[in-house]
Amino acid sequence: QSPKAGALRNILYAFRFHNKSVEYCQGLNRIGAIGLLYLEESEAFWFLVASVEHLQPLNYYSSNLVGAVIDQRVLLDLVQDKMPALHAHLQKLEVNLSLFTLSWFLTVFVDVLSHTVYIKIFDVFLYEGNKVLFRFALAILRLVELRLLECNSFSGVHTCLSNLSSIVTDYKALAKIAFNHLNPFPARLIESRRQSYYFQHRCGKFNI
């Protein structure tokens, strides 16, 4: 067993005692591992704390992942706003986009993009917080939009979105789409839609 693996286990155990409201999920070990690439064990622990408790919204890593699941509904709204043809096509194919994008948000794209790309996204995430996850998720979908529109089944969509590391290889091109081509992109719009879905969830209009 490598020293890094032992350090990661220590960080996750420590976090479990630090924040008892957060249940373990796959995203936590990915974020902790990113911290250990550049930081000592104790610093990587606080890196994980900051990422979960300050950069992501409340309840992102709770037992039912309610915060992250609600953000998938917000993302789908934004796809409909920014890429209506793609949204309609995925609806026609009965593709639940969150089956793919939930892990993007929980792991800050660590599971789906190459290291050279996701580490730069993580830098922006540390600077700007959760909002950039929407920007980059939409930018990825814009990059593969034509491929997805050519898919005529769920399996085709799955193949495309499961091979993003070989498709999305140029961070600068991705960032240009995220920060130039998708504007306007007001943070208050994301937050208002998020609060609307929280209210609907509390009223029992949909279950997580």
The N- and C-terminal alpha carbons lie at a distance of 37 Å
> How are helices and strands ordered from N to C?
HHHHHHHHHHHHH
| CA radius of gyration | 17 Å
> In terms of per-residue confidence, which ranges show pLDDT below 50 for 5 or more consecutive residues?
none
Instruction: State the secondary-structure class.
Output: mainly alpha
* Average pLDDT: 94
**How many beta-strand runs?**
0
Biggest sheet architecture: none
Can you tell me the overall shape?
globular
Task: Explain what this protein looks like in three dimensions.
By secondary structure, the chain is mainly alpha-helical. Helix content is 73%, strand content 0%. The chain has 13 helices and no strands. It has helices at 3-18, 26-38, 41-55, 66-82, 84-92, 98-107, 115-128, 131-143, 145-150, 154-161, 164-167, 171-181, 187-202. The longest helix has 17 residues, at 66-82. The radius of gyration is 17 Å and the shape is globular. The mean pLDDT is 94.
How would you summarize this macromolecular structure in one to three sentences?
This protein has about 210 residues and is mainly α. About 75% of the residues lie in helices and about 0% in strands. It has helices spanning about 5-20, 25-40, 40-55, 65-80, 85-90, 100-105, 115-130, 130-145, 145-150, 155-160, 165, 170-180, 185-200.
